[in-house]
Amino acid sequence: MNSTAPLNSDTSTAILAPFFVKGELLESSDSVQRSRDLGVNFATPALNLDRIVHARAEVPPLLNIPLAEIIDFLVETGQRMVAADNPFMQECIERMCTTHILPRSVVETSAKYAAAYLDKRTLMAEVAQNFPDPRALDGWVAKHDYNGRRSFVRAFAPRLIHVLPGNSPGVAVKSIAQGAMVKAINLFKMSSADPFTMVAILRTMASIDPHHAIVKSMSAVYWRGGDASVERVLYRPQYFDKIVAWGGGDAITNVVKYLGPGFQLISFDPKTSISMVGKEAFVSEAALTQAADLAAADVMTLNQEACVASRFVYLEADLASADRFCTKLHSCIAERAARTGDVRPLSMDLREQIETLMMLDDEYRVWGKPDGKGIVIRSDEPVDFHPTNKTVNVVRVDTLDDAVRYINVATQTVGFYPFDRMSVYRDRLASGGAQRIVHLGEAGPSTIGNPHDAMYPLHRFVHWMAHEDGCDP
Fold first, then answer.
1. CA nearest neighbour of 244 among 341, 146, 172, 168
2. Distance (Å, rounded) from C-alpha 439 to C-alpha 435?
3. Exposed site from 164, 264, 314, 366, fewest CB < 10 Å?
4. What angle do CA 312, 318, 319 make, to 5 degrees?
5. pLDDT tens digits, residue range 35-55?
6. Burial class for 238, CB neighbours closer than 10 Å (0-12, 13-18, 19+)
7. For the segment 322-356, what is each residue's pLDDT rounded down to a tens digit?
8. Could you give the 3-state DSSP secondary structure of residue 348?
9. How far apart are CA 236 and CA 10, in angstroms?
10. DSSP state, residue 103
């Protein structure tokens, strides 16, 4: 393997985005890249493929580090991330605000909440929920079957490539923690929307102990997704066991073509979250206000950039009642947008879609303007585009039973109102493919240790190894 060639040499206006490789910071402007959302140039070092791969003959650095010590180091990292004198995170926020579509206030808040994941109770709960016997992470666990056969089983440290998303900086923190707790060798492919957060966290770790095995087990670099000169070399079982991919359909499809024996995909597929609001929202003006405000909270989760953010509200109502709800919902979204200060014009494509609907009064009604301050679209069928940037489609249904037919395997979170009807629908939602049902207004936080995207990720990350030792005499 060798280094990739620079894309171009015009670095005069590009923002510096360093790499972090096995404990070493690499800073140079060999290649100029372009951010996905804002089209801003950033400069990176040339990618040396030989440097970012650990030889198979090498035992993973974290293998024999006790899990308790790893968790303690992660907790200390979380504390240092939010320290006022941490120059790496401050620099990260400054640079990220130039490449990311999220406003500064959301970026700063996201970093703070992401660091909160590095809590000892949280991390221990994640391990306990993912592994029936967490001792398997620290050593070989003895087992006997009913035939008297002896064996030892270990959750062996895997070699992982993490393809990080561009919409949620908090995934960087979770990916580091999860990769460390399974004692993996980790290569993080950063997003063009955020080529800074991962390196800032790893630099924070190195400032605590530059020689710690966690630091030596992690590398964060950037290459353009789909670059065959990189991916056809790295995406091989002789170098890595699994690829943990977050992202849109194109990103996942690109990875799939490299899969084969010995090289697996753990996919956090692109998802869409929804809300289901029952007729109980109309029993009083207070109930209507509450339901609309809770729905707005889910729409505005991470400024509607996260997968858990609601984009469709299925509303059990007649036409007049639906319009009352939409009026309230639009007001609540506009108020939240005003508080965050995030008002961005809609993309040209989304603006054109909405302006077309405005001319179809018989089938659609639209509250708001495509000016980035919030849009609510009422219809009897879901719109055929992806609502984003504070845009939500309220789909009127006669009964919530009619809403179930819109559930599919791409439905991640369902925010539900009223709460006492959730148990009636949860089996049907699961059968349709949905992965999570929550109280309306609580799409963002999740119960610690619960499955993510219908799986326990850490259990799938590891390389399960069995040592069979014959029968008892």
1. 172
2. 14
3. 264
4. 75
5. 877 778 999 999 999 999 999
6. exposed
7. 999 999 999 999 998 888 777 778 888 888 888 88
8. helix
9. 33
10. -
